[in-house]
Amino acid sequence: MERKEFYNRKFCILLNTNRCLVSLYAIIFVLILNVLTLSCNVSAESQLSNRYPRNLSEFSGEESEDVRNYDLEGNPDDSMEEITDDLYDNTQENLNSTGDEVNELKEQCNVVFHGFSEEDINTIINSALGDIFKWEILNRWLQLHDDNRDKVDALKEFLSDYLEKLKSLYNVDENIAQEQMNKTNHTIDSTIRITEDYHNKLFFYYVIKDNLPEREHERFVNICKNTFTLFVNELSNNGQTKLNKSVIS
């Protein structure tokens, strides 16, 4: 009975440690996003203009020269009309070409946004189908999820190889080693799931719900990508430490 209580307390300590780690990570991430959001506090006119093709101030070098020459050679009104028509045609072509991919997109969203309601997932899909910019950023987000899965798989494989190396150097009890490996993988799965759920909620709030200017969407995705990588590295260090203690002690 006392032994059971001891293991229960030990598990609670481990769980609380993981929760504290995730909470600290979440706080840091929110602070980063708050700074990002404050830096993006622009006027309504600026947000509207940023929703469509880049203006002249955003072109640089040869690209800017091409635009100026184009305006000088033709009627300014005609040039602007052609640019607008081209944007509309390209947008329609892109959105129409995805008609056969809607079911596939929904399947992907059901996997990535697994904790979301069907209503919220439909909101995500409809938002992307109605906006070429959101379509692109949603696909970037889905690809990022696949990349993160690869990182997690690589992490587990690395720790498994690391354990085999320890077993070749020390006299290791196979049962103890396997038990610790299972615990390590469980810790990885649980913390990664919490992290992904948190990132998805931020994506839904900032990107889908338009609480972040579109010109900052790419930056938001990169922040998520980099912080996830840092978190995986921390899990790697933590996993190696736990394996060392269980095997060498």
Automatic annotation (TrEMBL):
<dbReference type="InterPro" id="IPR006526">
    <property type="entry name" value="Export_prot_PHISTa/b/c"/>
</dbReference>
<keyword id="KW-1133">Transmembrane helix</keyword>
<feature type="transmembrane region" description="Helical">
    <location>
        <begin position="21"/>
        <end position="44"/>
    </location>
</feature>
<keyword id="KW-0472">Membrane</keyword>
<dbReference type="InterPro" id="IPR019111">
    <property type="entry name" value="PRESA_N"/>
</dbReference>
<keyword id="KW-0812">Transmembrane</keyword>
<dbReference type="InterPro" id="IPR044885">
    <property type="entry name" value="PRESA_N_sf"/>
</dbReference>
<protein>
    <recommendedName>
        <fullName>Plasmodium RESA N-terminal domain-containing protein</fullName>
    </recommendedName>
</protein>
<feature type="domain" description="Plasmodium RESA N-terminal">
    <location>
        <begin position="117"/>
        <end position="237"/>
    </location>
</feature>
<dbReference type="Pfam" id="PF09687">
    <property type="entry name" value="PRESAN"/>
</dbReference>
